[in-house]
């Protein structure tokens, strides 16, 4: 059973209803950012500049899409490994970010920050980039065009498939799932 | 001496890059379908179905199956009675990559300098390994190797006294540590023996073999099967969310080594095990 959920997460009731293992279809807005964009956002903020978009309630999708073919909204756009962003994530959560979409483990520090800031970490299926790109309806370049695939883009999504990995109660699907099926 | 023209290599390499990224091999599709029947987790089954659907969309719409269109890695078997006419073999391969990644709308993921990190914008340089063989043919094996799985790969210089048990424990440990990060279900490529650099090459080379194909040596074939069973009992499952399909296959290559050494390398591949080959 998949729940239909709207982004951004301005409403705490939505986030508090999410539990690890829930399968969601997201619709609304998410922002793309990966390694180089995270590094620049935070370096610039420390220099006194503002963040390239207001992160309050927003969701960041860790992705570096392929170039769009003529007629396409976006190229193939599956999730990248989230742990590379761990260094930057607690800062963004403290600034009001409410969700991240990626794949793979988060650090203990990030998991604690997810609980402390009442946020959520969502897993998209790594590699299913052609399928996922069908749920991306529009793309707007927001910042750092020079970073190419790593630039920050605002995506409008519809029925984007994700699974809750870390909820605001400290649950972790990677731990729970493996424990359930481990035979050695 | 047989002549092979530079332009023919460029053309073939370009096509391989595009085809590898758009069309998942029949061997991988067959492995997905087999895994669905055996997978114990419902979420795991859903994920495997999603991967099949994704591969079908990529193939039909002619788009990359994954946004990480990889480092282009080549193992080239160059017949010693071949003459490459019109330019160097390395240049021809890189020109083919440049052409294929550009025309195929594939993502450029290579940075010129590991510290400065400026993208080369054409996915070159590629990684090219040349093996000199007998005859007058040129066989090019290509893989588009994803960064997520490559990042979780590892090499260890074990002691001879660690033996087979040590080798198995090490491989299981690397797969466990990789967990969801390497995009399971995985293809686990293993190199045993050689020396430090040769061992890593063997692990990578093993990933070029089609899924479902066992090593010709019966002892190694049995070890591949045994490790496959053990890995699938780790519980990691599709995307690391729990389940019984952690590996689609295990591939092992073995070579002679020094009396003091037992090198083992594990090169992980994500489920998008993209490999193509062509013979000129």
From TrEMBL, chain A:
Pfam families reported in the protein's UniProt record: Fumerase_C
InterPro entries: Fe-S_hydro-lyase_TtdB-typ_cat, Fe-S_hydroAse_TtdB_cat_sf
Phosphoprotein as UniProt keyword: no
Keyword Coiled coil carried by entry: no
Domain (Fe-S hydro-lyase tartrate dehydratase beta-type catalytic) ranges: 13-176
Any one GO molecular-function label of the UniProt entry: hydro-lyase activity
Keywords: Lyase
TM region(s), chain numbering: none
Membership in a protein family: Belongs to the class-I fumarase family.
PANTHER family: L(+)-TARTRATE DEHYDRATASE SUBUNIT BETA, L(+)-TARTRATE DEHYDRATASE SUBUNIT BETA-RELATED
NCBIfam families noted in UniProt: PRK06842.1, ttdB_fumA_fumB
Protein name from the UniProt record: Fe-S-containing hydro-lyase
Species for this entry: Pueribacillus theae
Automatic annotation (TrEMBL), chain B:
The protein's name: Fumarate hydratase
Ribosomal protein listed as a keyword: no
Signal sequence bounds: none
Domain of life of the source: Bacteria
Keyword flag Transmembrane helix: no
Pfam families: Fumerase
Keyword annotations of the record: 4Fe-4S, Iron, Iron-sulfur, Lyase, Metal-binding
A GO molecular function held by the record: 4 iron, 4 sulfur cluster binding
Family: Belongs to the class-I fumarase family.
Fe-S hydro-lyase tartrate dehydratase alpha-type catalytic domain ranges (all copies): 11-278
């Amino acid at each position: 059973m998949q729940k239909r959920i709207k982004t951004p997460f301005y409403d705490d009731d939505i986030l508090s209803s999410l539990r690890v293992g829930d399968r969601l279809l997201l619709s609304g807005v998410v922002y793309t950012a990966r390694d180089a964009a995270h590094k620049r956002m935070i370096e610039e903020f420390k220099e006194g500049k503002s963040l390239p978009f207001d992160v309050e309630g927003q969701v960041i999708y860790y992705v570096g899409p392929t170039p769009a073919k003529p007629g396409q909204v976006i190229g193939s756009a599956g999730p990248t490994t989230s742990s590379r962003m761990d260094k930057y994530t607690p800062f963004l959560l403290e600034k009001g970010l409410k969700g991240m979409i990626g794949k793979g483990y988060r650090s203990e520090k990030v998991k604690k920050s997810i609980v402390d800031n009442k946020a959520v970490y969502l897993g998209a299926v790594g590699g299913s980039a052609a399928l996922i790109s069908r749920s991306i309806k529009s793309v707007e370049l927001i910042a750092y065009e020079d970073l190419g695939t790593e630039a920050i883009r605002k995506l409008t999504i519809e029925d984007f498939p994700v699974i809750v990995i870390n909820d605001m109660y400290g649950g972790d699907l990677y731990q729970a799932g493996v424990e359930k099926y481990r035979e050695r | 001496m047989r002549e092979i023209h530079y332009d023919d290599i460029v053309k073939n390499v370009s096509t391989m890059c595009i085809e590898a990224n758009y069309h998942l091999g029949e061997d991988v599709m067959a492995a997905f379908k087999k895994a669905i029947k055996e997978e114990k987790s419902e979420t795991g089954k859903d994920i495997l179905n999603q991967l099949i659907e994704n591969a079908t969309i990529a193939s039909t719409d002619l788009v990359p199956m994954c946004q990480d269109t990889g480092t282009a890695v080549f193992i080239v078997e160059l017949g010693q009675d071949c003459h490459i006419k019109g330019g160097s073999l390395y240049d021809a391969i890189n020109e083919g990559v440049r052409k294929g990644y550009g025309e195929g709308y594939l993502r450029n993921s290579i940075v010129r300098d590991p510290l400065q990190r400026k993208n080369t914008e054409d996915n070159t340089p590629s990684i090219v390994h040349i093996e000199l063989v007998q005859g007058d043919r040129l066989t090019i094996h290509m893989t588009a190797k994803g960064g997520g799985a490559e990042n979780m790969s590892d090499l260890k210089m074990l002691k001879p006294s660690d033996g087979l048990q040590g080798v198995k424990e090490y491989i299981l440990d690397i797969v466990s540590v990789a967990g969801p990060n390497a995009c399971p279900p995985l293809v686990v490529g293993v190199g045993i023996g050689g020396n430090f650099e040769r061992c890593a090459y063997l692990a990578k080379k093993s990933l070029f073999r089609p899924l479902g194909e066992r090593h010709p040596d019966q002892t190694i074939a049995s070890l591949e099967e045994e490790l496959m069973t053990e890995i699938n009992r780790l519980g990691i499952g599709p995307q690391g969310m729990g389940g019984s399909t952690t590996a689609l296959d295990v591939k092992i290559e073995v070579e002679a080594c020094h009396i003091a050494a037992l090198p083992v390398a594990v090169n992980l591949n994500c489920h998008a095990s993209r490999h193509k080959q062509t013979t000129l």
